[in-house]
Specification:
Number of domains: 2
Bound molecules: zinc ion
Order of helices and strands: EHEHHEHEHEEEEHHHHHHHHHHHH
Largest sheet: 6 strands, parallel
Helix content: 55-70%
Structural class: alpha/beta
Strand order of the largest sheet: 1-8-5-4-2-3
Distance between the termini: 46 Å
Number of strands: 8
CATH superfamily of the largest domain: Dehydroquinate synthase-like - alpha domain
CATH topology of the largest domain: Dehydroquinate synthase-like, alpha domain
Number of helices: 17
Strand content: 5-15%
Shape: globular
CATH architecture of the largest domain: Up-down Bundle
Length: 371
Amino acid sequence: MLCECGKDHKDIIESIRVEEKIIEGLLEDLKEYNTGEVLFVTDLPVSKAYQLFITELEAVGYCVYILKREDDLLPDEQGVGEIILQTTQATKLIVGIGSGTLNDLCRYVSYRLNIPYWIVMSAPSMDGYASTASPILVDGFKKTFYCHVAKRIYGQKDVINHAPSDMIVAGLGDLLGKITALTDWKMSHILHGEYFCPMIYRNLYDYIDNLSDNLSISQEELGELICESLIQSGIYMSYVGNSRPASGAEHLISHTLEMESIKKGEKVDFHGIKVGMATDYVLELYKDLRQNIDKVKDHYQLDSKQVSDLLSTIDKALEYEHLVKDYQQLILNIRKKYSKDQILYAMKQGPVIRDRFTILSIYQALGWGNL
Ligand SMILES: [Zn+2]
Ligand SMILES: [Zn+2]
């Protein structure tokens, strides 16, 4: 059925199963493959969280390859190469067990080999499970590659709910980032007529409302709720064919900060935490932009309808300012790490690292003023 945006959104994910115990269901789903045709890939910390599950897989003859790192696993050439070396001509499916980076690596390699991949989630830390893009570090520079989505998504509740709390905080941050991502998207639609889906816009805001109404529930339940919202956000990305509904200026800032950390050999903080932090800075930009709406009107030669649409879009985002400000209290240690200059640099890099129209593009066009 055609959506109000004019597209026929296709569900390309065959199944999503977040259950108490996933081994039986997964083995059932794997029946169409011989054991030698499937490569499982995980990393060291997740191999411990999913230890029993992995033992059960190995017991029935599956190969589970562990990417071993002393520090954090990076989505880099080494990771890509290692996984490729574990595949053979017979490999017909890659199943990743893990979260962010591991998911990006498995998605990228499986796409290049033209075979499907499934993912077993380990934490509600980001929305990349159902996304089509894999950011891979190429010579230290984060490049976003268009890939495919996981055909099947699994998650075992006890593992997801017992994920380290900073991963849950990260998932929350990635979700808050949708506020500015959606605002950037709608703004681009108003200013440039970029394709836009009102249904996705409304529904993602509903997920954020639902989350903000339920923040007081136990961490365990919160993990599941965040997980569900992040998967849905990923599904919406797959509906659109790119990450537009879920990734705007806040992601560009986060990616730049990440590249800078990697260049300096520093520890890389969770993606979602940096996104949640950047969301606060981008909301501040939107507040400033609202005050300077006349400059925007002149520069983009907007009519009064466009101006009022733009203002109401910004006001919608600013309704969530409290939620975003409260979140910053959870990540004070991360905020302390980045100086005002570093944040401003990351903002200015936004339009450089990716050709995506966001509020950063507007500031690039209008000048950064007194920021
Ligand atoms: Zn639509
Ligand atoms: Zn994200």
